[in-house]
Amino acid sequence: MMQEGEKMRKYNILINIITITLCLLILFSCTASAKQLTVTKVIPNTDIKTGDSISISLEFDNPFNRSIPLTIQDNNILGSSGLEIQCYEYTLPDKPHSGISYDFPTIAYSSGDFTLDPATVTYNNPETGAQESVRSEPVKINIKQGQTAGQQQGITKIYNCGGVSMQSTSISSSSSTSISISSGNQQTGQNSQQPLSSPGDIQQEAQDMQNLKKEMERQQQEQQRSQQELKEKIENNSEFKNLKEKLEKQGYTPEGQNIQPESNDTGNFDYNFKKGEESANISGRINAGKMENIQEQSTEDIKRLMQEIERNETFREMYRTLYDKGFNLFSRNVDIKQNISSFEYLFSNSQGKNASITGNVTDAGEIKDIRLKEPEPAYQYWIPAVLILMLGIYIFLKSWLKEKPAVLKIENTSFDPEQKALSMLENAISMFNNGREKEAFMEASNAVRYFFKGTAGIHELTSNEIIRSIKGSKNEGHLQDVKDCFMLCDRVKFAKFEPNRQDFDIVVEYAKRIIGP
After folding, report:
1. Considering Cα of 318, then 319, then 320, then 326, what sign does the dihedral take?
2. 147 with 50: CB under 8 angstroms?
3. Antiparallel, parallel or unpaired: β 48-49 and 367-373
4. Which of 232, 334, 346, 357, CA to CA, is 20 to 30 A from 325?
5. CB atoms inside a 10 Å sphere around CB 12
6. What is the DSSP code (8-state) at residue 94?
7. For residue range 228-284, what is the model confidence (pLDDT) as tens digits?
8. What does pTM read for this prediction?
9. What DSSP string describes 182-211?
10. Burial of residue 167 (number of CB atoms within 10 Å: 0-12, 13-18, 19+)
11. At what angle do helices 501-515 and 476-493 cross, to 10 degrees?
């Protein structure tokens, strides 16, 4: 009997050792796999006026304590000017925090609100060897009216990868004339010398420069004529006139246009309109005098389609899946086309990993081809080691313990749904106090849903379905609290209203009365 008890004691010690070892391995693997670069786009000076030079930089957090080669893609376009980094190779130093500033400042030509695109950084993870990409968040800036920034605007494109270095600037004057100025790497012999120019050569060079200036002026005048003729063809087109009349009836006024002629009857165009804080545009192409691909869109159209998208049950389930996994929404985009438009919702988590929900939406609000894309899990290199360890333990136990050990019974622990729901509500209050207002409303709504799930067996239903399920089983006051609570949470959750403290306090009060003491 004592021998059997000693064997069981050894068995329990061994199980404890195995459990602690597995926990340490899992903890180490989670810590190791969480390592990832993070990048932040920064504009040091936020008080910007037209005519100012805008300095843009990227700041990095490097958890690997070693130098890492990077490839950067970054667009910083403000209207018709800015900097487009198509490809830029850079070696990040072995410091926890560092940054890089672009040598090409962007000039603010136009006043208004602008959004700089996220920067994408690609690198090989030094611990896993896998290629990874991280993105910064987009940056919103406001440019106030100041000095006139001059007549010329341009977009500078930079490519510096694989030993190829190119820079080109597309300059637009007030008449939208485009001039391309390019530079690239050139190699010359070490002993090559330029011969001295004679007086005759100097005179010829001056004459050539004068001829070049006249030719550029002639081309500019020709461009202006083509632009004016194309403008008249666009504005006299019946499709364009109907779309413009529609916007004007909705209260929009013209805000300017961008016409890019290829000839006097062919080119692209984009007409802008404004109505308070709302904006709209009519864009398209006219080819040999015939209108092609003309379309009209407004921020009101985009908001309407976003509401349809965010009311869709499949979208909401995908949104909850990402939210439960720690992802937060950081970007929404709807690309409006005729009859059917595409949308993309981008998410990121605290480890810098990205996910998305994409699909198409018709003008009537029907959602099609909706897809959820999550980051592929990194390969866990510790798994083979754990399998080998478990195999060794199995062989050891089989040879050491001849008899089957007693079965360990694990008692099921039940949770009080009321206490759990109140705990979730406290978490929602903490979220709101920490500036996560919209997530706080969602958590408060989830607390009430969890309470009904645990007490009434109601699983994953919409707000209206929950209300119908409990109708008749609760008194009228309790039912009204549920309706009011869900109404406030839903209108904030789906971007109809901005969250505020007064509404949140009302939601918390409703939720406490619903859940009960």
Report:
1. positive
2. yes
3. unpaired
4. 334
5. 13
6. S
7. 888 888 889 988 999 899 889 989 999 888 888 888 888 888 899 998 888 888 888
8. 0.36
9. EEE-----TT--PPPPPHHHHHHHHHHHHH
10. middle
11. 140
